[in-house]
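Lay summary. Proteins are chains of building blocks that fold into shapes, and those shapes determine what they do. In this project we predict the shape from the chain. Here is one chain we studied, written as its sequence of building blocks.
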Amino acid sequence: MTFSKTLKLSTAALFSVALMAGTAQAKIATGSTVSDMQVTDSNGKVHNLSDFKGKNVVLEWTNEGCPYVKKHYKSGNMQSLQKEATADADTVWLSVISSAPGKQGYKTGAEANSHIAEVGAAPTAVILDADGTKGRTFAAKTTPHMYVINADQTLVYQGAIDDNRSANPADALTANNYVREALTAVKSGQAVPTPETAPYGCSVKYGS
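And here is the predicted shape, written in a compact code that computers can read:
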């Protein structure tokens, strides 16, 4: 896979860019290397993206109250995609909650675990980002907003989950799924056909 430009960004550099951009949220360029990012999951376990070198990583921004998120969970599409992806030991799926306390979708660790069990979801881990730091670093705008990072820790896809921007659960089953398309490509050593799209859904419920 080749890209015209590869930019190595550390966590500190990403935070700096995001802060300089303010509310505009600087976007990490597709084709950049993203390897240094510490996160804490719903069980209190700390992970770093660098720990997943050699694996493909899917990042899914989520908010259970958003109709567009409900579209994919009520239809079973998101759960099916998670299970399909993580059936491969070389793929990690991280669901990220960046809703601030008091905002729609906010979860404590226990609440996130309970919800995951209730809907039958199958992420590798649920990442809690109540202060919005990780969401702003990735310039996550909507729920869902999807990212695929390959085994070389290069961001190879970012944007919408699929090409049907409705909130109707039935549409999730017939749409072209960009995340599945990207994972299929990277696993076969091919270039991702559509590396970037405009995300759709509810706004991420960041705090002030």
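What the prediction tells us: The first strand starts at residue 8 and ends at 9.
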